[in-house]
């Protein structure tokens, strides 16, 4: 009799305990799952937040979504790669087109271009570009010349001689014997032929000749035209036309320089005039 009631009771207790554990497990499982999501989800969301369409992705204009999801690469190399690929357009141009484009630049612009980056420096240092600039700024007479150190170095040397030649006419305008003494090489082989036809030999003789020219009352403010320069390693000569006023014809002038101790010195000056009287020639010197 007792056994008849005992078995259903035991079954009911077992079912009750089983239901209790099932309910207890169901109660704690969502909390544990939510806790695990709260704990481990943020790193995953942190990697994908930059891939959204929000305004936060604007600073990464040079990177794709796949690149931004990778943690190890930084955006900087991507930006540099884009800059390099953009600059390489200069290399992709036909050389003739590149030379033609660079021929529109003047000396300061071409120098600034050569200091931007390696690709621009390569283009700006191209020999053809400096040859074109030389012909534009100086003369076409030396088209067949092949400078030993390239056209860029030849341009720089010619520009230096042009500046020295301009200094000579500044000394004439100022009538400065001390400056003229520093300008000429102190040697016995220097020569000076004035427009009067008089020849002065040696350093002291040349200085004496310029003193005679500076004693004239008329100013010596010349207009210089058609300057042509030829530069070698340690010697250069410059030919030009000079005008004292519009009533007299041009004076044809040749200046010869030698390079000593890091600077250019005048060693020869020759001046002549195609028309005008002797007095005008003497006044020119």
UniProtKB/TrEMBL annotation:
Keyword Transmembrane found: yes
InterPro entries tied to this protein: F-box-like_dom_sf, F-box_dom, NTF2-like_dom_sf, SKIP8-like, SnoaL-like
Residue intervals passing through the bilayer: 6-28
Superkingdom, natural source: Eukaryota
A Pfam cross-reference name: SnoaL_3
Keywords from the named record: Membrane, Transmembrane, Transmembrane helix
F-box domain span: 87-133
Annotated protein name in UniProt: F-box domain-containing protein
Organism listed in the record: Vicia faba (Broad bean)
């Amino acid at each position: 009799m007792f056994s008849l009631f005992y078995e259903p009771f035991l079954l009911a207790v077992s079912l009750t305990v089983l239901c209790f554990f099932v309910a207890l497990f169901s109660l704690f499982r969502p909390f544990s799952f939510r806790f695990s999501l709260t704990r481990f989800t943020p790193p995953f969301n942190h990697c994908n937040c930059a891939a959204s369409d929000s305004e936060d992705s604007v600073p990464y204009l040079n990177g794709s979504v796949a690149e931004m999801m990778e943690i190890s690469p930084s955006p900087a190399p991507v930006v540099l790669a884009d800059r390099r690929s953009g600059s390489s357009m200069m290399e992709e141009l036909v050389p003739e087109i590149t030379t033609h484009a660079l021929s529109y630049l003047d000396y300061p612009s071409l120098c600034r271009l050569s200091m931007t980056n390696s690709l621009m420096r390569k283009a700006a240092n191209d020999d053809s570009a400096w040859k074109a600039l030389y012909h534009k700024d100086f003369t076409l007479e030396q088209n067949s010349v092949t400078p030993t150190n390239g056209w860029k170095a030849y341009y720089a040397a010619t520009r230096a001689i042009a500046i020295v030649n301009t200094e000579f006419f500044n000394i004439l305008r100022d009538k400065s014997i001390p400056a003229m003494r520093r300008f000429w090489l102190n040697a016995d082989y220097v020569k000076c032929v004035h427009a009067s036809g008089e020849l002065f030999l040696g350093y002291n003789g040349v200085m004496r000749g310029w003193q005679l020219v500076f004693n004239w009352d008329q100013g010596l403010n010349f207009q210089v035209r058609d300057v042509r320069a030829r530069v070698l390693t340690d010697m250069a000569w410059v030919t030009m036309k000079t005008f004292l006023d519009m009533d007299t014809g041009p004076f044809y002038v040749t200046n010869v320089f030698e390079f000593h101790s890091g600077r250019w010195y005048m060693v020869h000056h020759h001046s002549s005039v195609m028309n005008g009287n002797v007095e005008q020639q003497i006044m020119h010197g």
